[in-house]
Amino acid sequence: MALRDAILVSLGDGPMSGYDLAKHFDETIGFFWRATHSQIYRELAKLKDRGLVTSEHVPQSGRPNRILYSVTDKGREALLEWSRQPAAADPVKDDFLVRLYGLEHMDMDALLEHLNQRLEGHRERLAKFSRIAAEARPRTLGELGRLRGLEIGLRYEREWAQWCEETLQALSPENIARFDTVVPLDNKKGRPKQ
Amino acid sequence: MALRDAILVSLGDGPMSGYDLAKHFDETIGFFWRATHSQIYRELAKLKDRGLVTSEHVPQSGRPNRILYSVTDKGREALLEWSRQPAAADPVKDDFLVRLYGLEHMDMDALLEHLNQRLEGHRERLAKFSRIAAEARPRTLGELGRLRGLEIGLRYEREWAQWCEETLQALSPENIARFDTVVPLDNKKGRPKQ
DNA sequence: GCGTTCATGTAACCTGTTACATGATTCT
DNA sequence: AGAATCATGTAACAGGTTACATGAACGC
What is the pLDDT of residues B87-122, one digit of tens each? Predict the structure, then answer.
């Protein structure tokens, strides 16, 4: 239930509309947690019901009115309480690794192409994060926390990029020639031992 | 839609029951993709409807009967087709990083304790993965793919463990004393600029 | 006696994605 | 002229979690 808390944390910087929050989730906090505007509007309604935020209508001319949300004391308390709950690491869950697991049943050419595309994506994000991190001069606790977040993102992208390179090597035609493409027959029938 | 394909890949090793699959998801393939038994039974029903798997009842004495599922040719074709679709990297999405982002509003003692717990978890998994990887001698393409998967898991745990250590250092009382705990007032009112 | 394993499933709920809907303004 | 931005939402669906339900066998 971290969307709720990601919203409360975001509103900690000051009142925002659902629209503002959606942009915020696309930019800064989006590296740690993502949400679409439909999700955000739904969650804001719930938060208001439970008294964790209040809303204020701001009329505008020429464009739709805004609805600004602010955290209440009850909301701040909920945040503090949440921060006392243990946070389990979410293990890797990846489409691509499932394909690798069933490599024998896959289209190898397509797989190698996707691997190259992924490598590029990781390199781009690595470059972007490095640039931001290099310029960061944290002054407040919050800024320090955000920098630490950026740091794990950097490590994450760096390792994935290196892994993609290694894997491209490991799956190159020369290396693959040394492996059987087909599973031995006695593994094909009956329940596998492991 | 990778649960479908994780099941098809798993059944590639031979017929399995829903129960077997659930265990499989808790063990081997569970590192790449997870699923509960309720999810698996639901998905198997769909797969059978679409003709991607067939089922066979196996009566047992003393315990509930088993229902063994096998991939059909249509299922194998679906897998191949799936492997041609691009696989987007799923970006980091982490509870703990949201807390770090809103560090000013958190219970710091609890946070440091959770950070220590996480460090331990990462170290344990790192040790486990290292052990398995050290013994691996891939012979088939499938085994090679699984080893590559293990390798990214290893890197992932290693980096997270190191990051936890660094972050514990960065958030130690001595280091924190140099930072303002409170955001300057002009950031507290109105919409933030970034 | 009590918990675990084996083996199937259902039901309610929460979360996340995609598409639909409206309508003025501003940029290219 | 057409696309993007501002700003709100709803609806349908897909994916994932948790709890409920049953019942025999086996180890401690």
Answer: 888 888 999 999 999 999 999 999 999 999 999 999
pLDDT value of position A63: 83
Residue A44 tokens read as: 């804001």
DSSP 8-state secondary structure symbol assigned to residue B193: -
* Contact in structure between A86 and B111 (CB atoms under 8 Å): no
Smallest Cβ–Cβ distance between B117 and the set A86, A92, A144 belongs to: A86
Cβ distance of B106 and A83 shorter than 8 Å: yes
φ, ψ dihedrals at B42, nearest 5°: -60, -45
Q: Which two tokens stand for residue B97?
A: 């990083």
Mean pLDDT over each residue of chain A, to the nearest integer: 91
- Round to the nearest angstrom and report the end-to-end CA distance of chain B: 35
Question: Of B86, B23, B19, B11, which Cα lies nearest the Cα of B47?
Answer: B11
**What digits encode the pLDDT tens for the residues A15-35?**
999 999 999 999 999 989 999
Are the beta carbons of B71 and B14 closer than 8 angstroms? no
Taking only the tens place, the pLDDT of each residue in B162-184 is: 999 999 999 999 999 888 666 54
Alpha-carbon gap, residue B119 to A161, rounded angstroms: 23
Residue A191 burial (CB count, 10 A): 12
In one letter, which amino acid is B52?
L
- Determine the distance in angstroms separating the CA of A117 from the nearest CA of chain B, rounded to an integer: 9
Q: Which fold, A3-83?
A: Arc Repressor Mutant, subunit A (1.10.10)
Contact B89 A160 (CB under 8 A): yes
Q: What is the pLDDT of residues A59-87, one digit of tens each?
A: 987 788 999 999 999 999 999 999 999 98
Predicted confidence band at A181 (pLDDT cuts at 50, 70, 90)? low
> How far, in Å, CA of A19 to CA of A11, rounded?
12
* Range 21-60, chain A: CB under 7 Å to any strand C atom: 34-36, 38-39
Q: Is the pLDDT of residue B185 over 60?
A: no
Predicted TM-score of the model (pTM): 0.90
Cα–Cα distance, B6 to A98 (Å, whole number):
6
Residues of B 60-99 whose CB lies less than 7 Å from any atom of strand C: 60, 63-67
Alpha-carbon distance of B136 to B132, in angstroms, equals: 6
